[in-house]
Amino acid sequence: LFARHWDFITSVKEMHQLPDLGGVEIAFAGRSNVGKSSLINKLTERKALARTSNTPGRTQMLNFFGAEHTQLRIVDMPGYGYAEAPKGMVDAWTTLIFKYLRGRSTLRRVFSLIDARHGIKKNDLDAMGILDKAAVPYQVVLTKADKLKPGQLERVKEDALKILAKRPAAHPEVLATSSEKGTGMDELRAEIALLVSY
Ligand code: GTP
Ligand code: MG
């Protein structure tokens, strides 16, 4: 699946621009700067497929990626919780994100990215609340694991699992990843391959 050549399909700013339903979609969601685009690049082994940046708010549309001969599509989402963006812009993309998450029948799982240094915050819980309500399955993926010592990472994982245990649409496992070091990529790829196979 990930040995294939991944390409950009389209960017979506408004709901009517969404590509036709087809195949299986997975989406990467999370706070601005959490590492969504970096993780997609690492997964697909393409350095600059999804645009990454030090400046939060880099990804401002839903970006769709695909590879030939696979039914999987990967969606890079704009980050939430980016306080410095103009309010009108934030409102526009928050609406888009929530509409997309609620209404997409081919969306098989959302990977809810959480910075391992920060853990699950209020706006992450808000996003999870939307997914729970819409019954969209989601799985927490910790990012930037390279920034923590193993012991710290275990604690963050345990805290996350406690929070997730009470949430109806949450997957009961948490993955720890580092796009910088490649940690956790095989596990994440295996998880995604399972989603495509059934
Ligand atoms: P928006 O599109 O703005 O919502 O951000 P994003 O979630 O797509 O984050 P992006 O992938 O652009 O990464 C943000 C910053 O975090 C960049 O400077 C990355 O280099 C850095 N980063 C991403 N993943 C990792 C990681 O695993 N380890 C470390 N140390 N830094 C990372
Ligand atoms: Mg991004």
UniProtKB/TrEMBL annotation:
ATP-binding as UniProt keyword: no
One GO molecular-function entry: GTP binding
A single GO BP: division septum assembly
InterPro entries: G_ENGB_dom, GTP-bd, GTP-bd_ribosome_bio_YsxC, P-loop_NTPase
Matches recorded under Gene3D superfamilies: P-loop containing nucleotide triphosphate hydrolases
Keywords linked to the UniProt accession: Cell cycle, Cell division, GTP-binding, Magnesium, Metal-binding, Nucleotide-binding, Septation
Limits of the EngB-type G domain: 22-198
One GO cellular component term noted in the UniProt record for this chain: cytosol
Cofactor (UniProt): Mg(2+)
Superkingdom of source: Bacteria
Record carries keyword GTP-binding: yes
Pfam families linked: MMR_HSR1
Family: Belongs to the TRAFAC class TrmE-Era-EngA-EngB-Septin-like GTPase superfamily. EngB GTPase family.
Purpose: Necessary for normal cell division and for the maintenance of normal septation.
Protein name per its UniProtKB record: Probable GTP-binding protein EngB
The organism of origin for this protein: Pseudovibrio axinellae
